[in-house]
Design a protein that fits this description.
Radius of gyration: 28 Å
GO molecular function: diguanylate cyclase activity
Helix content: 55-70%
Domain GGDEF: 255-384
Distance between the termini: 62 Å
Subcellular location: Cell inner membrane
Number of domains: 2
Keywords: Membrane, Transmembrane, Transmembrane helix
Order of helices and strands: HHHHHHHHHEHHEEHEHE
GO biological process, one term: negative regulation of bacterial-type flagellum-dependent cell motility
Number of strands: 5
Strand order of the largest sheet: 2-3-1-4-5
Protein backbone atom coordinates (compact mmCIF):
# COMPACT_ATOMS: atom_id res chain seq x y z
CA UNK A 1 0.00 0.00 0.00
CA UNK A 2 2.85 2.37 0.85
CA UNK A 3 4.54 1.65 -2.50
CA UNK A 4 1.31 2.38 -4.38
CA UNK A 5 0.86 5.65 -2.46
CA UNK A 6 4.43 6.76 -3.32
CA UNK A 7 3.92 5.80 -6.98
CA UNK A 8 0.68 7.80 -7.23
CA UNK A 9 2.25 10.80 -5.48
CA UNK A 10 5.28 10.67 -7.79
CA UNK A 11 2.99 10.67 -10.85
CA UNK A 12 1.10 13.68 -9.48
CA UNK A 13 4.36 15.58 -8.91
CA UNK A 14 5.38 14.91 -12.51
CA UNK A 15 2.32 16.89 -13.65
CA UNK A 16 3.44 19.95 -11.67
CA UNK A 17 6.17 22.48 -12.53
CA UNK A 18 9.69 21.19 -11.87
CA UNK A 19 10.44 24.44 -10.03
CA UNK A 20 7.92 23.61 -7.30
CA UNK A 21 9.71 22.63 -4.09
CA UNK A 22 8.62 19.67 -1.97
CA UNK A 23 7.70 21.97 0.92
CA UNK A 24 5.37 23.90 -1.37
CA UNK A 25 3.29 20.92 -2.48
CA UNK A 26 1.01 21.27 0.55
CA UNK A 27 0.21 24.80 -0.64
CA UNK A 28 -1.83 23.18 -3.41
CA UNK A 29 -4.19 21.60 -0.88
CA UNK A 30 -5.17 24.50 1.36
CA UNK A 31 -4.54 28.28 1.49
CA UNK A 32 -3.51 28.11 5.14
CA UNK A 33 0.28 27.89 4.71
CA UNK A 34 0.58 30.43 1.87
CA UNK A 35 3.07 33.26 2.30
CA UNK A 36 1.61 36.76 2.29
CA UNK A 37 2.94 37.81 -1.12
CA UNK A 38 1.53 34.71 -2.77
CA UNK A 39 -1.80 35.39 -1.08
CA UNK A 40 -1.78 38.96 -2.35
CA UNK A 41 -0.86 37.98 -5.92
CA UNK A 42 -3.45 35.21 -5.96
CA UNK A 43 -6.20 37.43 -4.56
CA UNK A 44 -5.46 40.11 -7.15
CA UNK A 45 -5.44 37.58 -9.98
CA UNK A 46 -8.74 36.02 -8.84
CA UNK A 47 -10.54 39.37 -8.66
CA UNK A 48 -9.22 40.45 -12.06
CA UNK A 49 -10.46 37.20 -13.61
CA UNK A 50 -13.79 37.58 -11.82
CA UNK A 51 -14.15 40.99 -13.45
CA UNK A 52 -13.24 39.54 -16.87
CA UNK A 53 -15.81 36.78 -16.39
CA UNK A 54 -18.40 39.37 -15.30
CA UNK A 55 -17.72 41.46 -18.40
CA UNK A 56 -18.26 38.50 -20.72
CA UNK A 57 -21.49 37.48 -18.98
CA UNK A 58 -22.75 41.09 -18.88
CA UNK A 59 -22.38 41.27 -22.67
CA UNK A 60 -23.58 37.80 -23.63
CA UNK A 61 -26.49 37.37 -21.18
CA UNK A 62 -28.84 40.01 -22.71
CA UNK A 63 -27.89 39.06 -26.29
CA UNK A 64 -29.44 35.62 -25.81
CA UNK A 65 -32.84 37.30 -25.35
CA UNK A 66 -32.98 37.75 -29.13
CA UNK A 67 -32.99 33.97 -29.59
CA UNK A 68 -35.54 33.56 -26.77
CA UNK A 69 -37.84 36.06 -28.50
CA UNK A 70 -37.83 34.02 -31.71
CA UNK A 71 -38.63 30.61 -30.18
CA UNK A 72 -40.50 31.15 -26.87
CA UNK A 73 -44.06 32.34 -26.16
CA UNK A 74 -44.15 36.03 -25.29
CA UNK A 75 -45.06 35.59 -21.57
CA UNK A 76 -42.14 33.17 -21.11
CA UNK A 77 -39.81 35.43 -23.09
CA UNK A 78 -40.80 38.43 -20.99
CA UNK A 79 -40.09 36.59 -17.73
CA UNK A 80 -36.74 35.32 -19.00
CA UNK A 81 -35.83 38.75 -20.39
CA UNK A 82 -36.54 40.31 -16.99
CA UNK A 83 -34.29 37.71 -15.35
CA UNK A 84 -31.55 38.35 -17.90
CA UNK A 85 -31.76 42.10 -17.34
CA UNK A 86 -31.33 41.68 -13.58
CA UNK A 87 -28.43 39.28 -14.13
CA UNK A 88 -26.79 41.72 -16.55
CA UNK A 89 -27.09 44.56 -14.03
CA UNK A 90 -25.61 42.35 -11.32
CA UNK A 91 -22.61 41.47 -13.52
CA UNK A 92 -22.09 45.14 -14.39
CA UNK A 93 -22.06 45.98 -10.67
CA UNK A 94 -19.41 43.31 -10.06
CA UNK A 95 -17.36 44.72 -12.94
CA UNK A 96 -17.60 48.34 -11.80
CA UNK A 97 -17.46 48.11 -8.03
CA UNK A 98 -15.19 45.14 -7.31
CA UNK A 99 -11.52 46.19 -7.44
CA UNK A 100 -8.49 44.09 -6.45
CA UNK A 101 -7.42 44.73 -2.86
CA UNK A 102 -4.94 41.88 -2.41
CA UNK A 103 -7.03 40.31 0.37
CA UNK A 104 -8.27 36.74 0.02
CA UNK A 105 -11.60 37.38 1.84
CA UNK A 106 -12.41 39.95 -0.86
CA UNK A 107 -11.37 37.47 -3.55
CA UNK A 108 -13.59 34.78 -2.01
CA UNK A 109 -16.54 37.17 -1.92
CA UNK A 110 -16.02 38.20 -5.54
CA UNK A 111 -15.87 34.65 -6.85
CA UNK A 112 -18.87 33.64 -4.70
CA UNK A 113 -20.92 36.54 -6.06
CA UNK A 114 -19.80 35.82 -9.61
CA UNK A 115 -21.01 32.22 -9.46
CA UNK A 116 -24.07 32.94 -7.32
CA UNK A 117 -25.58 35.22 -9.98
CA UNK A 118 -25.78 32.68 -12.84
CA UNK A 119 -26.58 29.86 -10.40
CA UNK A 120 -29.69 31.71 -9.18
CA UNK A 121 -30.53 32.51 -12.81
CA UNK A 122 -30.21 28.83 -13.70
CA UNK A 123 -32.56 27.72 -10.92
CA UNK A 124 -35.14 30.42 -11.71
CA UNK A 125 -35.02 29.86 -15.48
CA UNK A 126 -35.23 26.08 -14.98
CA UNK A 127 -38.38 26.57 -12.91
CA UNK A 128 -39.93 28.92 -15.50
CA UNK A 129 -39.20 26.59 -18.40
CA UNK A 130 -40.72 23.69 -16.49
CA UNK A 131 -44.11 25.46 -16.48
CA UNK A 132 -44.34 25.41 -20.29
CA UNK A 133 -44.78 22.61 -22.79
CA UNK A 134 -42.05 23.28 -25.32
CA UNK A 135 -41.70 21.54 -28.66
CA UNK A 136 -39.20 21.34 -31.51
CA UNK A 137 -37.04 24.49 -31.72
CA UNK A 138 -38.25 25.99 -28.43
CA UNK A 139 -37.53 22.68 -26.69
CA UNK A 140 -34.02 22.62 -28.18
CA UNK A 141 -33.32 26.19 -27.04
CA UNK A 142 -34.81 25.45 -23.64
CA UNK A 143 -32.49 22.45 -23.32
CA UNK A 144 -29.59 24.84 -23.85
CA UNK A 145 -30.35 26.41 -20.48
CA UNK A 146 -29.40 23.11 -18.87
CA UNK A 147 -25.82 23.61 -20.03
CA UNK A 148 -25.26 26.62 -17.76
CA UNK A 149 -23.96 24.53 -14.81
CA UNK A 150 -21.41 22.94 -17.15
CA UNK A 151 -20.25 26.37 -18.32
CA UNK A 152 -19.87 27.52 -14.71
CA UNK A 153 -18.04 24.37 -13.65
CA UNK A 154 -15.64 24.69 -16.56
CA UNK A 155 -15.22 28.40 -15.77
CA UNK A 156 -13.66 27.52 -12.43
CA UNK A 157 -10.60 26.38 -14.37
CA UNK A 158 -9.48 29.99 -14.97
CA UNK A 159 -8.87 30.58 -11.24
CA UNK A 160 -5.70 29.57 -9.30
CA UNK A 161 -7.51 27.74 -6.48
CA UNK A 162 -6.33 25.18 -3.95
CA UNK A 163 -7.92 21.75 -3.95
CA UNK A 164 -10.06 22.60 -0.90
CA UNK A 165 -11.30 25.85 -2.45
CA UNK A 166 -12.11 24.11 -5.72
CA UNK A 167 -14.03 21.33 -3.95
CA UNK A 168 -16.13 23.89 -2.07
CA UNK A 169 -17.03 25.79 -5.25
CA UNK A 170 -17.70 22.60 -7.23
CA UNK A 171 -19.89 21.22 -4.43
CA UNK A 172 -22.03 24.35 -4.47
CA UNK A 173 -22.57 24.03 -8.23
CA UNK A 174 -23.42 20.33 -7.89
CA UNK A 175 -25.91 21.11 -5.13
CA UNK A 176 -27.50 23.83 -7.26
CA UNK A 177 -27.90 21.34 -10.11
CA UNK A 178 -29.45 18.80 -7.72
CA UNK A 179 -31.80 21.47 -6.30
CA UNK A 180 -32.97 22.40 -9.81
CA UNK A 181 -33.74 18.74 -10.41
CA UNK A 182 -35.68 18.59 -7.14
CA UNK A 183 -37.84 21.54 -8.21
CA UNK A 184 -38.92 19.63 -11.33
CA UNK A 185 -39.17 16.27 -9.56
CA UNK A 186 -42.49 15.24 -11.12
CA UNK A 187 -41.33 15.74 -14.72
CA UNK A 188 -37.66 14.87 -14.26
CA UNK A 189 -36.04 12.62 -16.85
CA UNK A 190 -33.98 10.53 -14.47
CA UNK A 191 -31.58 8.86 -16.93
CA UNK A 192 -30.81 12.22 -18.53
CA UNK A 193 -30.43 13.94 -15.14
CA UNK A 194 -28.14 11.21 -13.77
CA UNK A 195 -25.97 11.35 -16.89
CA UNK A 196 -25.71 15.13 -16.69
CA UNK A 197 -24.82 14.96 -12.98
CA UNK A 198 -22.10 12.40 -13.66
CA UNK A 199 -20.68 14.53 -16.48
CA UNK A 200 -20.72 17.55 -14.18
CA UNK A 201 -18.68 15.60 -11.63
CA UNK A 202 -16.15 14.63 -14.30
CA UNK A 203 -15.79 18.26 -15.34
CA UNK A 204 -15.32 19.16 -11.67
CA UNK A 205 -12.41 16.70 -11.48
CA UNK A 206 -10.74 18.12 -14.59
CA UNK A 207 -11.30 21.65 -13.29
CA UNK A 208 -9.65 20.76 -9.97
CA UNK A 209 -6.54 19.64 -11.85
CA UNK A 210 -6.55 22.82 -13.94
CA UNK A 211 -6.94 25.07 -10.87
CA UNK A 212 -4.17 23.41 -8.86
CA UNK A 213 -1.89 23.37 -11.91
CA UNK A 214 -2.41 27.12 -12.32
CA UNK A 215 -1.69 27.60 -8.63
CA UNK A 216 1.48 25.52 -8.90
CA UNK A 217 2.85 27.72 -11.68
CA UNK A 218 1.87 30.85 -9.74
CA UNK A 219 3.70 29.57 -6.63
CA UNK A 220 6.85 28.92 -8.66
CA UNK A 221 6.72 32.29 -10.39
CA UNK A 222 6.07 34.25 -7.18
CA UNK A 223 8.88 32.48 -5.35
CA UNK A 224 11.32 33.23 -8.15
CA UNK A 225 10.21 36.86 -8.21
CA UNK A 226 10.29 37.55 -4.47
CA UNK A 227 13.29 35.55 -3.24
CA UNK A 228 16.89 36.66 -3.07
CA UNK A 229 18.73 34.22 -5.36
CA UNK A 230 21.78 33.92 -3.09
CA UNK A 231 20.24 33.37 0.34
CA UNK A 232 16.69 32.25 -0.52
CA UNK A 233 15.12 34.79 1.85
CA UNK A 234 12.85 37.59 0.64
CA UNK A 235 14.42 40.17 -1.64
CA UNK A 236 14.40 43.87 -0.77
CA UNK A 237 11.83 44.72 -3.45
CA UNK A 238 9.30 42.18 -2.20
CA UNK A 239 10.26 43.01 1.39
CA UNK A 240 9.31 46.66 0.94
CA UNK A 241 5.93 45.56 -0.38
CA UNK A 242 5.43 43.25 2.59
CA UNK A 243 6.50 45.98 5.00
CA UNK A 244 3.96 48.43 3.56
CA UNK A 245 1.18 45.84 3.97
CA UNK A 246 2.21 44.99 7.53
CA UNK A 247 2.37 48.66 8.45
CA UNK A 248 -1.16 49.19 7.11
CA UNK A 249 -2.35 46.10 9.01
CA UNK A 250 -0.73 47.34 12.21
CA UNK A 251 -2.41 50.75 11.90
CA UNK A 252 -5.78 49.28 10.97
CA UNK A 253 -5.86 46.88 13.94
CA UNK A 254 -3.73 49.00 16.29
CA UNK A 255 -1.44 46.01 16.73
CA UNK A 256 2.31 45.96 17.46
CA UNK A 257 4.84 45.70 14.66
CA UNK A 258 8.51 45.02 15.43
CA UNK A 259 11.38 45.54 13.00
CA UNK A 260 14.93 44.36 13.55
CA UNK A 261 17.96 45.28 11.46
CA UNK A 262 20.52 42.48 11.61
CA UNK A 263 24.01 43.26 10.33
CA UNK A 264 26.73 40.59 10.31
CA UNK A 265 29.81 41.68 12.24
CA UNK A 266 33.14 42.19 10.43
CA UNK A 267 31.71 40.65 7.27
CA UNK A 268 33.89 42.68 4.91
CA UNK A 269 36.89 41.00 6.48
CA UNK A 270 35.61 37.60 5.31
CA UNK A 271 35.40 38.84 1.73
CA UNK A 272 38.82 40.50 1.93
CA UNK A 273 40.62 37.55 3.52
CA UNK A 274 38.86 34.55 1.94
CA UNK A 275 37.15 35.85 -1.20
CA UNK A 276 33.59 36.59 -2.19
CA UNK A 277 32.65 32.95 -2.74
CA UNK A 278 33.44 32.18 0.88
CA UNK A 279 31.55 35.34 1.85
CA UNK A 280 28.53 34.09 -0.09
CA UNK A 281 28.69 30.80 1.78
CA UNK A 282 28.76 32.69 5.08
CA UNK A 283 25.72 34.71 3.99
CA UNK A 284 23.78 31.57 3.09
CA UNK A 285 24.77 30.00 6.40
CA UNK A 286 23.63 33.04 8.37
CA UNK A 287 20.33 33.21 6.46
CA UNK A 288 19.69 29.53 7.17
CA UNK A 289 20.33 30.01 10.90
CA UNK A 290 18.10 33.07 10.99
CA UNK A 291 15.34 31.30 9.08
CA UNK A 292 15.39 28.28 11.39
CA UNK A 293 14.86 30.53 14.42
CA UNK A 294 11.84 32.39 13.05
CA UNK A 295 8.17 31.89 13.75
CA UNK A 296 5.81 31.14 10.86
CA UNK A 297 4.51 34.73 10.89
CA UNK A 298 7.98 36.37 10.86
CA UNK A 299 9.51 37.51 7.56
CA UNK A 300 13.23 37.73 6.85
CA UNK A 301 14.40 40.11 4.12
CA UNK A 302 17.87 40.55 2.69
CA UNK A 303 18.03 44.34 2.83
CA UNK A 304 21.43 44.73 1.24
CA UNK A 305 24.93 43.22 1.41
CA UNK A 306 25.27 41.50 4.76
CA UNK A 307 22.26 43.27 6.28
CA UNK A 308 18.91 41.59 6.94
CA UNK A 309 15.59 43.05 8.05
CA UNK A 310 13.36 40.93 10.27
CA UNK A 311 9.65 41.87 10.22
CA UNK A 312 7.72 40.58 13.24
CA UNK A 313 3.98 41.30 12.96
CA UNK A 314 1.77 41.42 16.07
CA UNK A 315 4.86 41.23 18.28
CA UNK A 316 5.34 43.63 21.22
CA UNK A 317 8.82 44.99 21.90
CA UNK A 318 9.40 42.72 24.91
CA UNK A 319 8.53 39.53 23.04
CA UNK A 320 10.66 40.59 20.06
CA UNK A 321 13.59 41.34 22.37
CA UNK A 322 13.38 37.87 23.95
CA UNK A 323 13.19 36.16 20.55
CA UNK A 324 16.20 38.09 19.23
CA UNK A 325 18.18 37.41 22.39
CA UNK A 326 17.61 33.69 21.84
CA UNK A 327 18.69 34.12 18.23
CA UNK A 328 21.96 35.77 19.29
CA UNK A 329 22.56 33.09 21.90
CA UNK A 330 22.03 30.34 19.32
CA UNK A 331 24.59 31.87 16.97
CA UNK A 332 24.63 32.36 13.23
CA UNK A 333 27.19 29.74 12.33
CA UNK A 334 30.95 30.03 12.09
CA UNK A 335 33.41 32.19 10.19
CA UNK A 336 35.97 30.57 7.86
CA UNK A 337 38.56 30.63 10.66
CA UNK A 338 36.22 28.74 13.00
CA UNK A 339 35.25 31.75 15.13
CA UNK A 340 31.53 32.36 15.76
CA UNK A 341 29.68 34.40 13.15
CA UNK A 342 27.92 37.17 15.08
CA UNK A 343 25.59 40.07 14.30
CA UNK A 344 24.62 43.47 15.66
CA UNK A 345 20.86 44.01 15.93
CA UNK A 346 18.78 47.16 16.20
CA UNK A 347 15.15 46.71 17.25
CA UNK A 348 12.23 49.14 16.95
CA UNK A 349 8.50 48.63 17.55
CA UNK A 350 5.68 50.86 16.27
CA UNK A 351 3.69 51.29 19.49
CA UNK A 352 6.61 51.52 21.89
CA UNK A 353 8.47 54.04 19.71
CA UNK A 354 5.30 55.92 18.67
CA UNK A 355 6.50 55.87 15.05
CA UNK A 356 4.26 57.83 12.70
CA UNK A 357 5.52 56.23 9.49
CA UNK A 358 7.18 53.04 8.34
CA UNK A 359 10.22 55.09 7.26
CA UNK A 360 10.58 56.44 10.79
CA UNK A 361 10.38 52.94 12.24
CA UNK A 362 13.02 51.68 9.80
CA UNK A 363 15.28 54.62 10.67
CA UNK A 364 14.97 53.86 14.39
CA UNK A 365 15.90 50.19 13.89
CA UNK A 366 18.79 51.13 11.59
CA UNK A 367 20.14 53.73 14.05
CA UNK A 368 20.00 51.24 16.92
CA UNK A 369 21.83 48.65 14.88
CA UNK A 370 24.71 51.11 14.48
CA UNK A 371 24.61 51.81 18.22
CA UNK A 372 24.95 48.05 18.83
CA UNK A 373 28.06 48.04 16.63
CA UNK A 374 29.52 51.02 18.43
CA UNK A 375 28.86 49.31 21.78
CA UNK A 376 31.01 46.33 20.83
CA UNK A 377 28.96 44.27 18.35
CA UNK A 378 27.28 40.86 18.87
CA UNK A 379 24.45 42.45 20.82
CA UNK A 380 20.91 43.82 20.60
CA UNK A 381 20.06 47.50 21.01
CA UNK A 382 16.50 48.60 21.86
CA UNK A 383 17.16 52.21 22.85
CA UNK A 384 18.13 55.28 20.84
Amino acid sequence: MGTLHRLVWQKIKELLPNELQSSELRWLLSPGPHMSLLTQRRATLIVNRVRLFAFLFAVLTPLWSVIDLVVFPFPLWLSLAGLRLMVCIAFICVLLFYKPSGDMPDAYRSIAILFAIPTVFYICSHTLLGNYQLAEMSAAVGAGYAFLPFVLMAGLAIFPLTLVENLVMASVLLLAHAFAGYLSWSTLNWPSFAGAFWLLMLIAGVTALACTSQLAFLIALVRQAVRDPLTGVLSRGSGEEILARQWAHSLRHDSPLALAFIDLDHFKQINDDYGHETGDQALRQAAAHLGSALRASDMLIRWGGEEFLLVMPDTPAGAAQQALARLLAGGLGTRPDGAPLTASIGLAERQRDTADSVERLLAEADHRMYRAKQAGRNQLCLTT
